[in-house]
Design brief:
Blueprint (H helix, E strand, L loop, with lengths): L3 E2 L3 E5 L5 H8 L15 H11 L5 E6 L5 E10 L2 E8 L8 H15 L5 E7 L3 H9 L3 E14 L5 E12 H9 L1
Parallel strand pairs: 5-6
Antiparallel strand pairs: 1-2, 2-3, 3-4, 4-5, 6-8, 7-8
Helix pairs in contact: 1-2
Length: 179
Protein backbone atom coordinates (compact mmCIF):
# COMPACT_ATOMS: atom_id res chain seq x y z
CA UNK A 1 0.00 0.00 0.00
CA UNK A 2 1.05 3.57 -0.54
CA UNK A 3 1.82 5.19 2.83
CA UNK A 4 -0.78 7.57 4.24
CA UNK A 5 0.10 10.43 6.56
CA UNK A 6 -1.93 12.32 9.10
CA UNK A 7 -0.90 15.14 11.38
CA UNK A 8 0.85 12.73 13.79
CA UNK A 9 0.88 9.34 12.11
CA UNK A 10 2.16 7.34 9.17
CA UNK A 11 0.17 4.36 7.92
CA UNK A 12 2.34 1.99 5.90
CA UNK A 13 3.18 -1.62 5.22
CA UNK A 14 4.81 -3.56 8.02
CA UNK A 15 8.57 -4.06 8.12
CA UNK A 16 10.67 -6.62 9.95
CA UNK A 17 11.97 -3.76 12.11
CA UNK A 18 8.45 -3.38 13.56
CA UNK A 19 8.90 -6.56 15.63
CA UNK A 20 9.59 -4.83 18.96
CA UNK A 21 6.61 -2.51 18.61
CA UNK A 22 4.38 -5.43 17.57
CA UNK A 23 5.59 -7.56 20.47
CA UNK A 24 4.82 -4.72 22.89
CA UNK A 25 1.06 -5.14 22.33
CA UNK A 26 0.80 -8.71 21.04
CA UNK A 27 2.61 -10.39 23.93
CA UNK A 28 -0.64 -9.96 25.89
CA UNK A 29 -3.48 -8.72 23.63
CA UNK A 30 -6.16 -6.72 25.42
CA UNK A 31 -9.05 -7.54 23.06
CA UNK A 32 -9.98 -11.20 23.09
CA UNK A 33 -10.39 -11.26 19.30
CA UNK A 34 -6.59 -10.87 19.05
CA UNK A 35 -5.69 -13.69 21.46
CA UNK A 36 -4.83 -15.99 18.55
CA UNK A 37 -2.18 -13.45 17.52
CA UNK A 38 -0.34 -13.62 20.87
CA UNK A 39 3.42 -13.55 20.31
CA UNK A 40 5.51 -15.62 22.74
CA UNK A 41 8.80 -13.82 22.11
CA UNK A 42 10.57 -11.29 19.94
CA UNK A 43 11.56 -13.92 17.34
CA UNK A 44 7.90 -14.82 16.86
CA UNK A 45 7.03 -11.12 16.57
CA UNK A 46 9.79 -10.72 13.98
CA UNK A 47 8.27 -13.54 11.90
CA UNK A 48 4.80 -12.01 12.30
CA UNK A 49 6.04 -8.57 11.19
CA UNK A 50 7.74 -10.15 8.19
CA UNK A 51 4.57 -12.05 7.24
CA UNK A 52 2.49 -8.89 7.58
CA UNK A 53 4.96 -6.98 5.40
CA UNK A 54 3.76 -9.06 2.43
CA UNK A 55 0.07 -8.28 3.02
CA UNK A 56 -1.34 -4.88 2.01
CA UNK A 57 -4.43 -5.59 4.14
CA UNK A 58 -2.26 -5.36 7.30
CA UNK A 59 -1.38 -1.73 7.99
CA UNK A 60 1.26 -0.55 10.44
CA UNK A 61 0.39 2.62 12.37
CA UNK A 62 3.52 4.55 13.32
CA UNK A 63 4.33 7.85 14.92
CA UNK A 64 5.28 10.20 12.10
CA UNK A 65 8.23 11.75 13.94
CA UNK A 66 9.95 8.52 15.02
CA UNK A 67 8.39 5.80 12.81
CA UNK A 68 7.75 3.81 16.03
CA UNK A 69 4.95 1.25 15.64
CA UNK A 70 2.06 1.95 18.02
CA UNK A 71 -0.65 -0.24 16.54
CA UNK A 72 -2.18 -1.61 13.40
CA UNK A 73 -5.24 -1.52 11.22
CA UNK A 74 -6.59 -4.09 8.83
CA UNK A 75 -8.74 -3.69 5.74
CA UNK A 76 -9.90 -6.94 4.12
CA UNK A 77 -11.73 -6.24 0.85
CA UNK A 78 -14.80 -8.25 -0.13
CA UNK A 79 -15.63 -6.79 -3.56
CA UNK A 80 -16.96 -3.27 -2.79
CA UNK A 81 -17.23 -3.95 0.96
CA UNK A 82 -14.28 -3.88 3.37
CA UNK A 83 -13.93 -5.49 6.78
CA UNK A 84 -11.93 -3.11 8.98
CA UNK A 85 -10.42 -3.27 12.43
CA UNK A 86 -7.71 -1.95 14.72
CA UNK A 87 -5.39 -3.02 17.49
CA UNK A 88 -3.28 -0.50 19.41
CA UNK A 89 -0.71 -0.65 22.13
CA UNK A 90 -2.55 0.10 25.41
CA UNK A 91 0.35 2.41 26.34
CA UNK A 92 -0.97 4.96 23.79
CA UNK A 93 -4.67 4.63 24.70
CA UNK A 94 -6.66 7.82 25.11
CA UNK A 95 -4.50 9.96 22.84
CA UNK A 96 -6.74 9.82 19.75
CA UNK A 97 -4.33 7.78 17.62
CA UNK A 98 -6.85 5.05 16.76
CA UNK A 99 -9.41 7.63 15.62
CA UNK A 100 -6.82 9.56 13.60
CA UNK A 101 -5.52 6.41 11.91
CA UNK A 102 -8.94 4.88 11.22
CA UNK A 103 -10.28 8.17 9.85
CA UNK A 104 -7.37 8.33 7.38
CA UNK A 105 -7.92 4.70 6.38
CA UNK A 106 -11.66 5.25 5.90
CA UNK A 107 -11.02 8.29 3.69
CA UNK A 108 -8.56 6.25 1.61
CA UNK A 109 -10.93 3.29 1.29
CA UNK A 110 -13.90 5.43 0.23
CA UNK A 111 -12.08 8.02 -1.88
CA UNK A 112 -9.25 6.06 -3.53
CA UNK A 113 -10.05 2.36 -3.20
CA UNK A 114 -13.68 2.49 -4.33
CA UNK A 115 -15.27 1.02 -1.20
CA UNK A 116 -19.04 1.27 -0.97
CA UNK A 117 -19.37 -0.09 2.57
CA UNK A 118 -17.11 -0.66 5.58
CA UNK A 119 -17.96 -2.87 8.54
CA UNK A 120 -16.34 -3.87 11.83
CA UNK A 121 -17.01 -6.52 14.46
CA UNK A 122 -16.63 -5.50 18.12
CA UNK A 123 -17.12 -7.60 21.25
CA UNK A 124 -19.97 -6.28 23.39
CA UNK A 125 -17.61 -5.68 26.33
CA UNK A 126 -15.08 -3.68 24.24
CA UNK A 127 -16.52 -0.25 25.00
CA UNK A 128 -13.54 1.73 23.66
CA UNK A 129 -13.88 0.11 20.21
CA UNK A 130 -17.62 0.72 20.25
CA UNK A 131 -17.01 4.41 21.00
CA UNK A 132 -14.42 4.55 18.22
CA UNK A 133 -16.88 3.09 15.72
CA UNK A 134 -19.45 5.69 16.71
CA UNK A 135 -16.95 8.57 16.53
CA UNK A 136 -16.10 7.41 13.01
CA UNK A 137 -19.77 7.68 12.05
CA UNK A 138 -20.43 3.95 11.96
CA UNK A 139 -23.86 2.78 12.98
CA UNK A 140 -24.59 -0.33 14.99
CA UNK A 141 -26.26 -2.83 12.68
CA UNK A 142 -26.70 -5.82 14.91
CA UNK A 143 -25.84 -7.97 17.88
CA UNK A 144 -24.77 -11.58 17.45
CA UNK A 145 -25.40 -13.50 20.67
CA UNK A 146 -22.77 -16.07 21.62
CA UNK A 147 -21.26 -15.48 18.19
CA UNK A 148 -17.69 -16.68 18.58
CA UNK A 149 -15.20 -18.07 21.06
CA UNK A 150 -11.61 -16.89 21.33
CA UNK A 151 -10.70 -18.82 24.47
CA UNK A 152 -11.71 -21.73 26.68
CA UNK A 153 -12.66 -21.74 30.35
CA UNK A 154 -10.85 -23.70 33.08
CA UNK A 155 -12.68 -26.89 32.05
CA UNK A 156 -11.68 -26.48 28.41
CA UNK A 157 -15.12 -25.36 27.25
CA UNK A 158 -15.42 -22.50 24.75
CA UNK A 159 -16.36 -19.10 26.17
CA UNK A 160 -18.69 -17.57 23.61
CA UNK A 161 -18.80 -13.81 23.23
CA UNK A 162 -21.52 -11.49 22.03
CA UNK A 163 -20.40 -9.47 19.03
CA UNK A 164 -21.70 -6.20 17.63
CA UNK A 165 -21.50 -5.27 13.97
CA UNK A 166 -20.98 -1.66 12.96
CA UNK A 167 -21.06 -0.35 9.39
CA UNK A 168 -20.72 2.80 7.34
CA UNK A 169 -21.80 3.42 3.75
CA UNK A 170 -19.94 5.74 1.43
CA UNK A 171 -22.86 8.18 1.18
CA UNK A 172 -23.01 8.34 4.99
CA UNK A 173 -19.27 9.10 5.12
CA UNK A 174 -19.60 11.81 2.48
CA UNK A 175 -22.61 13.35 4.23
CA UNK A 176 -20.70 13.41 7.49
CA UNK A 177 -17.80 15.27 5.87
CA UNK A 178 -20.15 17.78 4.22
CA UNK A 179 -22.28 18.21 7.35
Amino acid sequence: MQPLETERLRLRNFREGDAEGLFAYLRAPVASCFLSLTQKDLDAARAEAQARSKDDAQIAVCLKDTDALIGDLFAHPEEDTVSVGWNFNPAVAGQGYAFEAAQALFAHLFDAAGARRLYAYVEDHNLSSQRLCERLGMRREGLFLEYISFRNDAEGQPVYENTLQYALLKWEWEGRRLG
